[in-house]
Amino acid sequence: MLTRHFTPLDRVLMRLDHALASGVAGVAHAQRDNPAGDLPEADMDATQRRHAAGLMRINHTGEVCAQALYVGQAAVARDAATRAHLEHAAQEEADHLAWCHERLRELDARPSLLNPFWYASSYSLGALAGLRGDGWNLGFVVETERQVEAHLDEHLETLPPQDARSRAILATMKDDEARHADNAQAAGARVLPPPIPGVMRFMSKIMKSVAYRI
Predict the structure, then answer these.
(1) What's the whole-model pTM score?
(2) How many C-beta atoms surround the C-beta of residue 213 within 10 A?
(3) Cβ 70 vs Cβ 89: under 8 Å
(4) 8-state DSSP, 38
(5) C-alpha to C-alpha distance for 63 and 90, rounded to whole angstroms
(6) Would you give per-residue pLDDT tens digits along the chain (214 residues)?
(7) How far is CA 44 from the centre of its chain?
(8) What is the DSSP letter of 108?
């Protein structure tokens, strides 16, 4: 079987296609089954449904950002193993993106209108992080995933208790994020120095506040 070698133009078009699917349309195709499976839809009042939808919109936007971040990092990764690690993580994040999008439809809600902006910003940030070298690249993965784990814990605590479908999706996402961080740590991630983690938390807080509503 012949192995195709992609030209620089091929790679540009592939990244543009990825940006349109993840950032503009905000959708992706999952390779794994939705963790919510056949769980019944919860009986929630209007306020609870709005809150669940707001949280799932945040998580959908977070996955748009994760897609862009990892694709940007992989684009400039120097080591093939690091690039493969980032691309594998990006595919699992694509599963998360698809699951969150499906849940938003079930809740009669839409993704964030600012997803194209979040995608472009995160791609740029990922590429800048990757240019520092693979150790810093992987360190960025670890810090990102640890912060995502923390906000998923918050969402699992504040979701309406009867919303089993959203909970199943977020619980699986949390397990995946922890594994991504552990794998990056084992692959030689460097610890990010201050103030980078604090700046990342601040930017994440802004994104969550905006995406919940818009």
Answers:
(1) 0.86
(2) 9
(3) yes
(4) T
(5) 9
(6) 445 555 554 554 455 455 445 545 455 678 899 999 999 999 999 999 999 999 999 999 998 988 888 888 888 888 888 888 788 888 888 899 999 999 999 999 999 999 989 888 888 888 887 888 888 888 888 999 999 999 999 999 999 999 999 999 999 999 999 998 998 899 888 998 888 889 889 989 999 999 999 9
(7) 27
(8) T
CA dist 179 → 108, 118, 143, 149 (Å): 31, 24, 13, 10
Amino acid at position 199, single letter: V
* Separation between Cα atoms, residue 172 and residue 166, nearest integer Å: 10
Interhelix angle 46-76/115-131, rounded to 10 degrees, is 30
Other Cβ atoms closer than 10 A to 161: 10
Cα torsion 14, 12, 10, 76 to 10°: value is: -90
- Selected from 3.40.50.620, 1.10.287.130, 1.20.1260.10, 2.30.30.240, the CATH number assigned to the domain covering 45-213 reads 1.20.1260.10
Query: Residue 202 burial by CB count (10 A; 0-12/13-18/19+): exposed, middle or buried?
Result: exposed
**Residues 170/156, Cβ–Cβ less than 8 Å:** yes
Region class of 27: left (phi > 0), else alpha (psi between -120 and 50), else beta: beta
- Give the DSSP letter string of 142-168: HHHHHHHHHHHHHHHHHS-TT-HHHHH
What are the domain boundaries of the chain?
A: 45-213
C-alpha angle with apex 84: 72 to 179, nearest 5 degrees? 90
Length of the chain: 214
